[in-house]
Design a protein that fits this description.
The protein is an alpha/beta fold and 391 residues long. 31% of the residues lie in helices and 18% in strands. Strands 1, 2, 3, 4, 5, 6, 9, 10, 11, 12 and 15 form an eleven-stranded mixed β-sheet that branches. It has a two-stranded antiparallel sheet with strand order 7-8. Strand 13 and strand 14 form a beta hairpin. The N and C termini lie far apart (56 Å). The N terminus and C terminus are likely disordered. Keywords: Cell wall, Cell wall biogenesis/degradation, Hydrolase, Secreted, Signal.
């Protein structure tokens, strides 16, 4: 009887570990102690175990979701899934680069795959606390990162043969910011590499010539105590060390092999950095934001200028990095590794007939040189000229 009960408990635990629902892989949440989300709740991750030849390999994926750079926006965020584990879905859908299907994710399907939930509002890099006697906010992104790594090391990460740190959007920025720390946390014989998807945020003037994104990041760094966790080579070199939140200023100091996946017309940056609402009070860009086909020739010229600035910021990485990889396409999108239709599927975006999954795999396993830059819009038919909706 006791044996039967024990077996039942084991089966129930396995059932809660992951659930297959209509072809979807839903993975259960694990809470971590010794760190706090914005509201003081415990941070979380989702782990789906690897198998077969991938059992000793690990892929960690930072969740994205923007930032909060002032007290009010952080208080608001603390009441959402991006500020508190209390509001997170307990089961997370794994697809794209996290899929366990070899036909959908040929290089990483059988790895241990981890989704790091995002609840600090500072790209896993802050270390501060706000307490005015009435409200408390924990800006502990750096502590969250360290706590999750410490929790995963004895679960097999500490014996990894291969490891890839990735992330999308604000999580893609986290991959830049934490890549060297990830390398240092693992054994010296582990093959460690990093990937950023839509995380190469530019220090770019908006259409009114204001540095909207720069001001936003400066306030973010100040509020969340991020500066001390930025790249020391960068902060000691620049007169304004807060600018080291932008990857373009510290990319050349990074030693760990890195892959940059970005569109040259990143929709988030288009909507919030190049043409933020504050710079388009009359709504002249509204139709262009909704559909690229509605952009005027003058607006397209500005977008082409943004693409040119991104390629210029990446030029030394393209030329000088011997271990780096790159896939810069011309789709109007944001984040392409987490969605199956853009990661690896029939008709997914490609450059020179190479899909994103194929390019990343070629780079990670050193099968081929993988630095691909698309021709300018509108030449790429694989994008289908569909603009993503970004709030």
């Amino acid at each position: 009887m006791e044996l039967a009960v024990s077996m039942l408990l084991i089966l129930l635990n396995l059932a809660s570990w992951c659930v297959l629902s209509e072809g979807r892989l839903l993975v259960d949440m694990t809470l971590v102690s010794d760190a706090f989300c914005l509201d003081g709740s415990l941070p979380a991750y989702h782990l789906h175990r690897g198998f077969g030849a991938g059992a000793s390999n690990w892929l960690l994926q930072f969740e994205g979701g923007g930032w909060c750079n002032d007290i009010q926006s952080c208080l608001d965020r603390a009441k959402t899934k991006h500020g508190s584990s209390l509001y997170m879905n307990k089961l997370e859908d794994f697809n794209g680069i996290l899929s366990n299907d070899a036909s959908l994710n040929p290089d990483f399907y059988n790895w241990n795959r981890v989704k790091l939930r995002y609840c600090d509002g500072g790209s896993f890099s802050g270390d501060a606390k706000f307490d005015n006697g009435t409200s408390v906010l924990y800006f502990r992104g750096q502590k969250i990162w360290e706590a999750i790594i410490l929790d995963l090391l004895p679960k097999g990460l500490g014996n990894a043969d291969k490891a890839l740190l990735s992330g999308c959007s604000a999580g893609g920025l986290s991959s830049f910011l934490q890549c060297e720390n990830f390398y240092r946390a693992l054994p010296t014989n582990t093959s460690v590499k990093c990937l950023s998807d839509a995380g190469f945020f530019l220090d770019e003037r908006d259409i009114t010539l204001n540095y909207t994104m720069r001001t936003f990041f400066e306030n973010l760094v100040s509020l969340q105590g991020i500066e001390k966790n930025l790249d020391k080579n960068c902060t000691s070199f620049l007169d304004n060390p807060k600018l080291c939140m932008f990857p373009q200023y510290f990319l050349n100091y990074m030693a760990t092999p890195f892959f940059i996946l970005n569109t040259a017309y990143d929709v988030y940056q288009f909507h919030h950095a190049l043409v933020p609402p504050s710079a388009d009070m009359n709504g002249d860009w509204k139709r262009c934001k909704l559909s690229i086909a509605s952009c005027t020739p003058q607006q397209l010229d500005i977008l082409q200028g943004f693409r040119g600035d991104m390629l210029a910021a990446l030029s030394s990485f393209l030329k000088d990095s011997t271990s780096g990889g790159m896939f810069i396409n011309s789709c109007f999108a944001h984040c392409q590794s987490e969605t199956q239709e853009t990661w690896f599927a029939l008709g997914s975006p490609s450059i020179q007939d190479k899909t994103i999954a194929g390019a990343v795999g070629d780079w990670y396993f050193s099968r081929n040189i993988s630095k691909l830059i698309d021709c300018a819009y509108p030449c790429d038919a694989s994008c289908h000229n569909i603009i993503a909706q970004v709030s």
